Amino acid sequence: MMGYYKAPDLTAEMIDKDGWLYTGDIGVIEEGKFLKITDRKKEMFKLSAGKYIAPQVIENKLKESPFIEQAMVIGENEKFASALISPNFGFLHDWCSLHKIQFRDNKDLIEVPEVIERLSKEIREVNKSFSEHEQIKKFRLVTEEWTPQSGELSPTLKLKRNLVAKHYKDLIADMYSKTEKDQNVLKLLKSGINGILKNLPKF
Q: Quick one: which H or E segment has residue 139?
């Protein structure tokens, strides 16, 4: 049995001349006839190179891993996409027990090299499903479990992106900041170039 409902009145601005309804969703046509909604247009962002990313598609793929409970893909106006990962701590605790990995608490756990490498492996596997610009280049694990009660998720389990980004602004800054080594290399290059220019004969 199929149920029906009466659609609300639609304004002319919501429907184009060909009869298409603008909903703000992003989707793909499957099997030539089914529309599958994959993301919200307002959640898309653009990298500094001009490539667009639909984060929810990547996040849903990441959450297929038993090691990952929640994920938020970021990178607006940056050179590459990164992710904040809230692990599935119950599964991760069992995995550590199986592999005889010792830790004091979740804060200690997310810094264990074996754990970071195992999550890296999961992300590398997910990256195979996406084009180069959509692939996760860096990630950081967090100790908090994101829930509607803690505020990171809405009652319908959607990410509150602005709130999460604000809460983890230091972690995000760390992923996109240049390392001390990078800075030293740039200084050496700059110094070398200035030295060459200074010693060039003047005409």
A: strand 136-141
Q: Give the tens place of pLDDT for each residue, 118-163.
A: 999 999 999 999 999 999 999 999 999 999 999 999 999 999 999 9
87-105 pLDDT, tens digit each = 999 999 999 999 999 999 9
Helix (H) or strand (E) holding 73: strand 68-74
* pTM for the full predicted model: 0.69
Question: What does the alpha-carbon distance between residue 102 and residue 108 come to, in Å, rounded to a whole number?
Answer: 9
Instruction: Report the candidate in 154, 152, 120, 156 with the shortest Cα–Cα distance to residue 137.
Output: 120
| Cα–Cα distance, 91 to 16 (Å, whole number) | 48
Give the Cα separation of 13 and 22 in Å (integer): 8
Computed over its alpha carbons, how large is the radius of gyration of the chain? 23
Query: Are 143 and 106 a contacting pair, CB within 8 Å?
Result: yes
Pair 80, 138: CB distance under 8 Å: yes
- 113 φψ region: left (φ > 0), alpha (ψ -120 to 50), beta (else): alpha
Domains of the chain (ranges; CATH) run 42-178 (3.30.300.30)
The 10 Å Cβ neighbour count of residue 118 is 18
- Asked if 48 and 60 touch (Cβ cutoff 8 Å), the reply is no
Count CB neighbours of 159 within 10 A.
21
